[in-house]
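hey can u check if this looks right to u? its 268 residues, i copy pasted from the old doc so theres a chance i mangled smth
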Amino acid sequence: MLSALAPARRRLLIGLVVLVGLVLAAVVLLALPPPGTHQSAGRPRQDRPGPVLLVPGYGGASSSLDGLAAALRRQGKDVTVLRLPGNGTGDLRQQARVLGRAAQEVRARTGAPSVDVVGYSAGGVVARYWLEELGGAQLTRRLVTVGSPHHGTELAELGTLAGSCPAACQQLQPDSPLLTELDRLAAREHGGPRVVSIWTTFDDVVVPPDSARLAGALNLTVQGVCSASRVGHSALPSDPVVQAMVSAQLGPGPPGQVGPQDCRRLLP
């Protein structure tokens, strides 16, 4: 067809085709996110921190998170501490549904596109169940777990032997069906939130303490930052170093390693 056109018209047509191609290329480039903000499918933008949901541990005592909530609010964050049904000892699946409803309510109230979740102790397992099983990965930018028994705790087995082990206790036994399923799902490649696990080597509730280590997550021990720390399980949310570690991982940048060089910087 081009050969049938006069040379001048042929040059004009070729020029128009090139111009249209350049315009389309410019439109595509403008639609791309800036460098460093590219998002995998289904993953909220990592450079936009959201309101924070704090999930209590076994027993559901929200007061245990008061210190951490106050520390995050001083950083200007919108913080909600969940109240769990059944005093936090009932089915972790039901607790995860409560977390899901709270996340929707917070997003509706704030207009935020995503939330950040901090799960203390069993609250970290609750958060993982919500992310993996109930669609929470689409709403969560980042998950930070603090002293969470991701692979169970021997204390839950002792509770069974003593004849006093409610539903959540049974689900926190090593190799329980719920934890086994979460491990299987966590092995999948998906565009979920970035996950950070913070724990103490002196944990007397999560036994052994490295049950808090989670494959695929950024794993940080308190002693890896401040070697002299002897913080135990119950004191984790009120510990100044832990609070600073959590706050740092909820920033707009990607989760980052911290070490002994950061101890003095993190201390108040």
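The longest strand covers residues 140-146.
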